[in-house]
Hints:
The chain has 304 residues and is an all-alpha fold.
Amino acid sequence: xxxxxxxxxxxxxxxxxxxxxxxAVESPQLRVIxxxxxxxxxxxxxxxxxxxxxxxxxILVHAAARAVGLDQETAGLDHAACAIEMIHSYSLVHDDLPxxxxxxxxxxxxxxHRAFDEATAILVGDALQAxxxxxxxxxxxxxxRQRINLIRxxxxxxxxxxxxxxxxxxxxxLDEDLTLPQLKAMHALKTGALIRASxxxxxxxxxxxxxxxxxxxxxxxxxxxxxxxxxxxxxxEGTTESLGKTQGKDEAANxxxxxxxxxxxxxxxxxxxxxxxxLSPLEELGDRADxxxxxxxxxxxxxx
Length: 304
């Protein structure tokens, strides 16, 4: 870890946390809540966005932009960072629904459909997804070309060829024995696609070259897979209190995991291998990529 990394992580996390509510529903310029029903959706949306979270994806947006030369204070970059968090939050709200993972806890608090109700949770996810793309469409300080690339990148990572497709495979794979290539392919979509998109948004915001974008994507591809492997490890070694969600639920549901396929020690070795592979392409970006390096190590070494 670089000495200032945790201060940097807190700075970006606090910045994103402050802006999420304003950009989602509370800004006077954007507020359209006119009756009690819309106020209810507003309250539930704020609940989903602000009930904790490490903000890894938004930090990746900022760190990737810095790695290729963009000042982290750029207003448009904040739009991109908040957009990725809205997509991630929407996915968690929907993942917890009874028809999906049916989980009562998220980040140590009642999941959205438990704190409110199922219909509200569905609408919250829909609203956050739509708002994310609106944010990118009006992101200040970017060219139209950049805005289109930002929207296209996040849409591709969110849909059937990304996160949604990975979730569909995950649901279809209950009680199935996947091979390692099949498991990697599933998580490249379910988890990895948004990790890659986070890094790509930062690169696009910084107007990175094709070579720089390629290096960032190679980094994110390996780190995204390592992220999921560590999640599988933590699901075995953690507790419900430390995880903020039901511990051991993947095993109880007989989901395919890296621990199930590789064993606990094998999964840990694979995560370390992916970390080293992900750090390698950052060499050409020099010291400006140090926050990406530190974040990769944090992802692999975290315990929750």
